[in-house]
Write a structure and sequence with these properties.
The complex is a heterodimer of chains A (576) and B (321).
Chain A lengths: L2 E2 L14 E2 L13 E3 L8 E2 L3 E5 L15 H10 L4 E3 L6 E3 L2 E7 L4 E6 L13 H11 L10 H5 L3 E8 L2 E6 L6 H5 L7 H4 L5 H6 L11 E7 L3 E6 L12 E5 L4 H9 L5 E2 L7 H5 L4 E16 L14 H10 L2 H8 L4 E3 L30 H10 L11 E2 L2 E2 L1 E7 L6 H13 L4 E7 L1 H9 L17 E7 L5 H4 L18 H12 L3 H18 L2 E14 L2 E2 L15 H5 L1 E3 L1
Parallel strand pairs in A: 1-22, 3-7, 5-14, 5-15, 20-21, 20-22
Antiparallel strand pairs in A: 2-3, 4-25, 6-7, 8-9, 9-11, 10-11, 12-13, 13-14, 15-23, 16-22, 16-23, 17-23, 18-19, 24-25
Helix pairs in contact in A: 9-11, 15-16
Chain B lengths: L1 H31 L4 H5 L7 H10 L6 H13 L13 H36 L4 H15 L2 H12 L18 H39 L2 H8 L4 H9 L4 H15 L4 H6 L5 H11 L2 H29 L6
Helix pairs in contact in B: 1-14, 5-6, 5-8, 5-11, 5-14, 6-8, 7-8, 8-11, 9-10, 11-14, 13-14
Classes of the chains: A alpha+beta (576), B mainly alpha (321).
Chain lengths: 576, 321
């Protein structure tokens, strides 16, 4: 399992989505308010056809409250409407169902104006009350614990109101700076389909195989672990799709998917493994695209201050020595087929500027690690960790032999990576034992307890090191969250617990001035760079391929089929 | 007759005890694995601690293991296999769909393997110590020793796009007749069924050859030859029927495994069957699916073995003695 939360738009500027600027009425926290229409803009546009995609992780559920896989949410992006979505080039917010928005009352109230004449796929009119009713239903106490709701509303939504058919007002219990970021992931669900469920269990068990939607495509058939097939929604309010529909076909084996692509059984592959990429690049009938992504691999060092064994791992100087011992350039070359770059933060550069700031989300001036085993040895010598039997150093009376937890299903080239790390660490007198698990078991090893409430005192106490990765959504908040103490037992994989960092996380959450908020986000990244719960390794490129018979796709850090925007499925078309 | 009935009742009794042991082991086996459904789901940013707690309560994971076991037995007694942790759909419905997909493919593959194995085994035994014997046994053993996933990938590459790479149908094609849909399904079945059949047939070859050789040495076969009977008649009338006992056991076991699917083959060829479901359920710690799938598998193996035991009575009445 790649840890999913979700880089600048790649060099492949194909036919971009034209971004029409619509007016923002009033001023708000994140005041940018645009309409993303999209325009194929190609001289040779052939209409029709079904764009056939080989799924990446596949659709695990059609129920937005229980779906986990990225493909499920990518599909939702293209069948449901959302109040706002992202521009695929700038990653600024653009209107979808909402035409404009503003924050009021210091960011406690958010007012959205929505389009007129919108219809659900069952023909009923979609009005503001529908949007508000579902939000109130989902956040009601009787449905506490329903998936997705916590992530989007975080328990802060007091009430959603619809004073008129085209206005939705969200009342929060505190200023919320990330409302747009959160709502860009909240599908507009049909009350006639959802409000009938009175319990979390009932809502969770609803399979939703024939969803009532209002986005650009409607579902025509869904077969679990096989296929999702859609057709263009004739009553869609926005730019009409050029294709008849798209389909997502499940392949459990990537070699089979690539074979299907080269034999034209399908038109595109969402995720191409590095070793297969050169052959696809050489294939004249395919566009093989490598573009900066939000994927970052990382080396985790247990940072729980209550760690019981190998407490030397908490020493920042030792962490610097470890960073000096790792050759990130070799990882890019050997593991990622030269498609990526050494990382200095878990926050990717790929998403560009934080909306409203014209400054990058990724903090500038972070310290750059350089592969320098001699410097690493000097640091360890300086710390008094003398070499003993078989060249392994001793710290606090114990040999510096550490176990590295690696989730095999989430880490590419695990055997080769393991060998590289063993060699690099052996050169500085540190022994590594690689212990592989699947993701669920690896995470359990890291947490180290089954206690219902996880705290620094009762969890994350025994593990040493791990290799894993993150992908993230555009706002860095979603990724920086994972290092807060509040995520113990949930998203934390480092045991990092720093009150100053936790305070900053809360501050940025309510800071309505984007520039001030960005300063906090940069501070948080600098704290992580200083304390090193993670040694960021590689920002790997997203490798994808599609038939040259198709064009109109803009590469994004999440790929051409993504959960940020429906622009690609609106613009993709056959070459005329 | 009474002795035969006594034998049959004993076999049924053993089968029921075995089934209960399997049900119990099924329950505890997966819970020994590190990781659990909730910590797995807890990696999802969408799940707050409250949501994790709600999931524990919803799936009874907040109770002691013993209480969960009792609840599991009670559910089973009512024919309820529970709710999938991942899809939240009834396990019985999920597995029924998977079984409908698995049985045709694995069934065809097993039948192919049995036919191929019996034929090559008979030839190898009859042409003992000739190139036909060495060739067929060596080929069977080579295929048997090959990792089935690797074999599948090699067949996939060798087909070079001539056969579909995955799935049960061309999901994007419009089938106007049932015949065209079946033809499409047949085309999609070729690679996975061939992979599985090649991987399986070696065991039938070896067992058939060995059983045949034992029988060929019997006096009554010598007598049949002395009487001037033709080879085909000797094999079909005198050798093969008497060599069937071990072969019957193997066939019964193999048919039992048909419902278990073929995890690796189904995964390589994206065949949406029970093997693929088990593979996913393992990584997702979806205990109800795993328990359900293994129960179905165990029950079918036990049932087929029971049938084989009862067939013994017919094939060799001395068994009841």
């Amino acid at each position: 399992m790649t840890r999913v939360l979700q880089r600048c738009v790649g060099g492949l500027a194909l036919i971009g989505a034209a971004t029409a600027i619509a007016g923002c009425f009033g001023s708000g926290g994140s005041s940018s308010s645009k309409q993303q229409g999209g325009n194929a803009g190609s001289a040779a546009v052939k209409r029709g056809g079904v764009f056939r995609i080989a799924a990446n992780d596949g659709i695990d559920s059609m129920n937005p409250f229980t779906a986990f896989n990225s493909d499920s949410h990518n599909a939702f992006q293209n069948i449901y409407s959302f109040l706002v979505q992202y521009d695929t080039k700038t990653f600024d917010y653009v209107g979808d169902l909402a035409t404009s928005w503003k924050a009021q009352n210091g960011g406690r109230d958010w007012v959205f104006k929505i389009r007129t004449g919108v219809k659900w796929s069952d023909g009923r009119p979609l009005v503001a009350k529908d949007v508000a009713d579902v939000m109130n239903w989902a956040t009601s106490p009787k449905l506490e614990g329903l998936g997705l709701v916590g992530e989007i509303f975080g328990g802060h939504l007091k009430h959603a109101a619809a004073p008129d058919p085209q206005t939705v007002v969200l009342h929060y219990d505190q200023p919320i700076a990330v409302v747009l970021s959160k709502l860009a992931k909240w599908p507009i669900l049909a009350p006639q389909q959802w409000l009938k469920f009175k319990t979390v269990t009932a809502a969770g068990q609803f399979q939703n195989t024939a969803p009532i939607t209002s986005g650009p495509f409607v579902v025509t058939s869904y077969a679990k672990r096989q296929l999702l097939l859609t057709k263009a929604n004739p009553s869609y309010y926005g730019k009409k799709p050029i294709i008849d529909g798209w389909g997502l076909k499940q392949y459990d084996n990537i070699d089979a998917a690539i074979q299907a692509l080269t034999s034209r059984e399908i038109d595109a592959v969402e995720a191409v493994p590095g070793p297969s990429f050169p052959s696809l690049e050489a294939n004249k009938s395919l566009n093989a695209v490598a573009a900066p992504s939000s994927f970052v691999s990382d080396f985790i060092i247990n940072s729980n201050p209550h760690k019981t064994s190998h407490r030397e791992l908490l020493n920042p100087k030792l962490r610097q020595a470890f960073a000096d011992a790792i050759d990130k350039e070799s990882l890019v070359r050997l593991i990622h087929a030269n498609k990526g770059e050494p990382a200095d933060s878990i926050v990717p550069k790929a998403y560009g500027d934080l909306p409203g700031t014209q400054k990058p989300s990724h903090a500038p001036g972070l310290p750059q690690d350089r592969y320098d085993p001699a410097a690493a040895n000097r640091i360890l010598d300086g710390l008094g960790y003398k070499r003993g039997a078989r060249g392994i150093r001793t710290a606090n009376g114990a040999p510096m032999n550490y176990t590295v937890i690696v989730p095999t299903d989430a880490y590419t080239g695990v055997t080769r990576v393991s060998d590289l790390f063993k060699r690099w660490f052996s050169a500085i007198g540190v022994g590594l034992t690689i212990k592989t698990f699947d993701s669920a078991a690896a995470y359990n090893e890291i947490i180290g307890t089954q206690a219902a409430t996880k705290t620094p005192a009762n969890s994350y106490k025994s593990f040493d090191l791990s290799l894993w990765n993150w992908t993230s959504r555009p706002d860095p908040e979603s990724l920086l969250l994972v290092a807060t103490t509040g995520e113990y037992g949930s998203l934390s994989d480092t045991g990092y617990s720093n009150p100053a960092y936790d305070r900053d996380y809360k501050r940025q959450f309510t800071e309505m001035d984007p520039n001030k908020r960005l300063a906090i986000l940069w501070d948080m990244q600098r704290m992580l760079a200083r304390d090193r719960p993670y040694i960021p390794l590689v920002w790997a490129d997203k490798l994808q391929a599609w038939s040259t018979k198709w064009t109109g796709l803009t590469e994004t850090p999440q790929g051409f089929f993504n959960e940020s925007s429906n622009a690609n499925m609106l613009n993709v078309h056959q070459v005329g | 007759m009474v002795r035969g009935l006594d034998y049959a009742l004993k076999r049924v009794g053993f089968a029921l005890i075995t089934l209960f042991v399997v049900i119990t082991m099924n329950f505890f086996l997966f819970r020994v694995l590190p990781g659990n459904a909730v910590t797995n789901l807890g990696r999802d940013a969408r799940l707050s601690p409250q949501a994790q707690h709600a999931l524990r309560v919803q799936f009874g994971l907040d109770k002691s293991t013993a209480a969960q076991y009792v609840a599991y037995l009670r559910q089973l007694a009512h024919g309820n296999l529970g709710i999938s942790y991942q899809s939240r759909a009834p396990v019985l419905d999920e597995l029924t769909t998977d079984l409908k997909n698995t049985i045709p493919m694995v069934g065809v593959a097993t039948l192919l393997a049995i036919v191929l194995g019996l034929a090559t085994g008979v030839i190898a035994a009859w042409r003992r110590r000739t190139w036909a014997d060495h060739g067929s046994v060596a080929t069977a053993l080579i295929f048997y020793a090959m990792p089935v996933a690797w074999l599948g990938l090699m067949l996939l590459l060798l087909s070079n796009g001539a056969l579909p790479a995955g799935g049960m149908y061309d999901d994007f094609a419009v089938h106007t007749t049932l015949l065209s849909k079946w033809a499409d399904a047949g085309k999609h079945m070729i690679l996975p069924a061939a992979t599985l059949a090649l991987g399986l047939y070696g065991q039938f070859t070896v067992i058939t050859r060995s059983a045949m050789l034992e029988t060929i040495g019997e006096d009554y076969v010598l007598m049949a030859r002395a009487k001037g009977l033709g080879n085909a008649r000797i094999i079909t009338r005198h050798v093969l029927p008497n060599a069937l006992l071990p072969i019957t056991t193997l066939i019964a076991l193999s048919l039992g495994f048909v419902v278990g699917g073929a995890i690796l083959v189904e995964t390589v060829f994206s065949w949406p069957g029970i093997g693929q479901a088990v593979f996913r359920a393992l990584s997702e710690r979806d205990y109800p699916i795993l328990q359900g799938a293994f129960l179905v598998l165990a029950a079918s193996v036990i049932f087929c073995n029971l049938i084989a035991d009862l067939l013994y009575l017919k094939l060799d009445p001395r068994t009841a003695a």
